[in-house]
Amino acid sequence: xxxxxxxxxxxxxxxxxxxxxxxxxxxxxxxxxxxxxxxxxxxxxxxxxxxxxxxxxxxxxxxxxxxxxxxxxxxxxxxxxxxxxxxxxxxxxxxxxxxxxxxxxxxxxxxxxxxxxxxxxxxxxxxxxxxxxxxxxxxxxxxxxxxxxxxxxxxxxxxxxxxxxxxxxxxxxxxxxxxxxxxxxxxxxxxxxxxxxxxxxxxxxxxxxxxxxxxxxxxxxxxxxxxxxxxxxxxxxxxxxxxxxxxxxxxxxxxxxxxxxxxxxxxxxxxxxxxxxxxxxxxxxxxxxxxxxxxxxxxxxxxxxxxxxxxxxxxxxxxxxxxxxxxxxxxxxxxxxxxxxxxxxxxxxxxxxxxxxxxxxxxxxxxxxxxxxxxxxxxxxxxxxxxxxxxxxxxxxxxxxxxxxxxxxxxxxxxxxxxxxxxxxxxxxxxxxxxxxxxxxxxxxxxxxxxxxxxxxxxxxxxxxxxxxxxxxxxxxxxxxxxxxxxxxxxxxxxxxxxxxxxxxxxxxxxxxxxxxxxxxxxxxxxxxxxxxxxxxxxxxxxxxxxxxxxxxxxxxxxxxxxxxxxxxxxxxxxxxxxxxxxxxxxxxxxxxxxxxxxxxxxxxxxxxxxxxxxxxxxxxxxxxxxxxxxxxxxxxxxxxxxxxxxxxxxxxxxxxxxxxxxxxxxxxxxxxxxxxxxxxxxxxxxxxxxxxxxxxxxxxxxxxxxxxxxxxxxxxxxxx
Length: 721
Known about the structure:
- By secondary structure, the protein is mostly beta strands.
- The chain has a single domain (4-720), classed as Maltoporin, Chain A (Beta Barrel).
- The protein has 5 helices and 40 strands.
- The strands form 8 sheets. The protein has a 22-stranded antiparallel beta barrel.
C-alpha cells in the first residue's frame, strides 16, 4: 500500500478533479437549458459513416474515416466512432493517402508534418523513434498500437515499420482517462493494416541513398465464397547503409492478419508481427565546444544493435442488441535487443579522443488487454454514448550492461582498425510491473451541445531488483494508485464550426530504474485546453486550432551524460508547457491535397536543478511550421503524373537546459514525383526526397550535439493487381 501522505494527495487530487467536474457539468446543464428554451425542435446532427471492410460497429478495417488527406473520424480519439469535429481534444490524423504520397521510411518521418510533434531532437539515430509531443518526451510512454499500450524502456523500444501501417492518430494532451499509462503531451496510436473483403495485392521495390535496397509486398482479400473470412499478409525486406559510416538499417518483417466476421454483428481479428532489425550501437560524433564534428565516435569493429520483436493480438467485437456492444482487445508483445558500442569521452585533449566501450542485453515483454462495453441510448432529449471498460497490463524488463575501454583516436586523422575487447557484464536489473485500470466515459449530446465526461482509476504494482549478474539482491516493491480523467464541452454550429474547452489529467507509472537502481516514481500531469474545429462546408477540408497549458511532475527523460558519454534515464521535477497549434488539411476535387501547420511551444523547467529552474527545456523550439502539397494531373497527355513538395521549419532552441547556447533555426525541403502509368493499370513510379538540399546542420540536446539526417532519395516501382 502507498503511505498515508501519498493516499492523502491522491484523495485530494480526486476531490479537486470531481469539484471541477461538477462545476463544468453544472455549466453544461445551464447551457443545455438555455438551448432548450431557445428551440423547441431537435436538430439532427450529421452522421458520419465509416466505410470499409467492416466490424460490428461499422468502423473501417484500419479504424479511420477519411477522404484523401482529410480525417473525419478515428476510433482512437474516444474508443468510439465519434466524428473528430465532436471530440473536445486536439487530434491529428495521418491518413493512408498521406503515407502513400510521402512514403516515409520511419515513424519520425511519418510524424514530421504534425503540429506540436517534435522530431529530430537527437539528430540522426536509427536506434530509436525519439519524439516529443507538446514538448514532452513520448518515446517510452506515448506509443500505442491498435489502441493498446506499446512498452518501451532503455534501448528496448519497438521498431515501427511504416509500410505496415494503415494510418496514425495523434491525440494531444493527457489521454489517461481512457488509456491509462500514457504521456502528458499526448499519444500516437498506430493502426495496423487489416484484412479486407476486396482482393488487394501489391508488390514494390525501392532503391535509394546509402545503398538502400528494399522489397515490400502486401496481399489481402476474402478466404471463402461468402466473405466471412479474410486475410492480410504484409512483408518488408531491406538492406541499407545510413549516414553514419558503420551503422546499417537492415530489416526483415512479416505481419499476418486474419478476420472472421460471420455476420454484421460479430467480428474477430488476429494481428501478428515478427520482425528482425539490425542497426548500430551508436550514431554519435565527437563533440568540440558545443559543436558536432564529422569524426565518428564509434568503431566499425564494435558497433552492432540486433533486435528481434514479435506481437500477436486479437480484437473481438459483438453487437448484443441495438443498445449494447461488447469489445475486447488483447496482445502479447516481446522484444530482445543486444548492442555493442564504442563512445567518446568528451572532446579531444591534446589532439586525442579517449573512448570507452559498452555491451548491453535487454528484454521487454508482456501482455496488454482492454475489455469494454458500449451503450447508445437516449434519456428524453439527451443522447448518450456510454463506454465502460477495464484494461490491464503486465510488463517484464530485464537488463544486463557492461563497460570497458577502447583505443583512443587521433582527432586530426582518426583510424578505426584496432580490435575492441568485449567487456563483461557488470550491472544487472529486473523489473515487473502490473497495472489494472477501470474507466467510464459518457459522450452526451443535447441538441447542439456536446459534453464528454470520463474518469479512470488505476492500481499499479512495480517490483524491482538491481545488482550484478547472478546477484540482484532483494526485490523492492512499490505500489501506486491514482485517478485521472477528462471533461470537455463542444458546441456545433450550422457553419461547421465547433468550439470546445476541456480539462484532463494523466498518471503514468514508468518502467525502468534510475542510476542508483531505484524504481522511478509515477509521472503526473494536468492540462487545460481550448480550441475550435471547422469542417468547411462544400469543401473537403478540415481546420483545427487549440491553445493549451500542461503541467507535469516527475517526467522521465533519456539524456546523454556529458561527462561519461553514456545514455541515461533521468527524472525531472516539474515542467510546464504552454502553446498554440494550428492545422489544416484538404483534398480538393482537382487532384490537389494539402497539409499546413504551425505550433508555438513554451516549455519551462519549473522545478529543476539550481542552474536550470526557470529555463527552457533544451532542443524545444518555440516555433515550428510545415506545409506539404501534392497535385496529380487528371486527364490529358499527362494524366496520372503527380508532384509533391513540402517545407519544414524548425525555429531556434537552446542546446542545454542551462540555456547557455542556441540551436540555429533551419528549413528542410522535401519533394516527390509520381506517375500512375495509364497503359499499365496498377503500376506506379515514384521518387521521394527528404532534406532535398542536404541541409547540413546540428541539433544539441542536454549539452550534447548530433548531426541532422542528410539528403535521402528513394525511388520505387509499385504494381497493384
